[in-house]
Amino acid sequence: QVQLVESGGGLVQAGGSLRLSCAASGGTFNSYAMGWFRQAPGKEREFVAVVSWSGRATYYADSVKGRFTISRDNAKNTVSLQMNSLEAEDTAVYYCAATTASSFVRGTYRAARDYNDWGQGTQVTVSS
User: Fold this and answer.
1) Which of 3, 8, 49, 83 lies most in the core, judged by the most C-beta atoms within 10 Å?
2) Residue 70 DSSP label
3) Strands, E, within 1-128: which ranges?
4) Distance (Å, rounded) from C-alpha 81 to C-alpha 72?
5) pLDDT tens-digit profile of 87-98?
């Protein structure tokens, strides 16, 4: 089990950028694939991006591809989400989450149910 704490959310104008960070503790960080999800009011939690345990492989939701970049630093036990060209539709609470290497390998990393550990979330609001 790993404890996760997100930071970096806030209010930004459309077209702007934000960088979210997630600090992990209490587990073997470099054994987990790490994902970012988001949940807007009245909507289900949706997959945003995932990075493999080594950081070499990344996958994105089509809605953020080319605008968001996920990365990790295993020496610092952190995972980040750089968000550029933000749109009003990106407004949501953003969560980081940890999943197993097997989940990543079998390709089920888009499913929130495959993640065992979650942070408390950080609010991102994009004004149009």
Assistant:
1) 83
2) E
3) 3-7, 10-13, 18-25, 32-39, 46-51, 58-60, 68-73, 78-83, 92-100, 115-118, 122-127
4) 9
5) 999 999 999 999
How far out from the chain centre does Cα 83 lie? 10
Q: Are strands 122-127 and 46-51 parallel, antiparallel or unpaired?
A: unpaired
Task: Residue 127: name the closest of 15, 46, 45 by CA.
Answer: 15
Residues listed for the chain? 128
The pLDDT mean for the chain works out to: 96
Answer yes or no: are the C-beta atoms of 34 and 22 closer than 8 Å. yes
Residue 106 token pair: 């079998």
Tens-digit pLDDT string for the chain (128 aa): 899 999 999 999 999 999 999 999 998 999 999 999 999 999 999 999 999 999 999 999 999 999 999 999 999 999 999 999 999 999 999 999 999 888 888 888 999 999 999 999 999 999 98
Identity of the residue numbered 102: S
